[in-house]
Amino acid sequence: MANSGDAQGAPWPVPKFYFQVKLGDVGVISFQEVSGLDSEHDVIEYRAGDSKAFSTIKMPGLKKSSDVTCKKGMFKDDTALFDYFNSIKMNTIKRETVTIQLLDQDGKAMFVWELTNAWPMKVTGTDFNSQNSEVAVEEIVLSHEGMSMKKG
Q1: Model pTM?
Q2: Between vectors from CA 121 to CA 115 and to CA 124, what angle results, nearest 5°?
């Protein structure tokens, strides 16, 4: 793993182009892009009626995470994303742990994001345009109930 960039030993930033996604029982799927790995807290503003300060205090409220979008190229006879999406039925959602790993040059995980109780909320097929010579790309959007991040 490259950890020094110059004569002074300053560390190199981690490249983000080598990663792996495991969708629960579906298994490892090669994606081109993953986005939406963010969390935030609601802000609760409060001011007591007898406070001498003419402003509110801010406290952390409920934690929430964004939906995660994964994009990948389409391959002949590969319907894994649509099959995964179609496995969802009314009140019979199989929630799974989704693991996203940022890998080093040896294929070892440097950082791991884990989505808790994830399920596919949206799947989008490719668009078509006869004027472009681009790869067909499909995407899936995952809803989840929380995200954790740790060193690999």
Answers
A1: 0.84
A2: 115
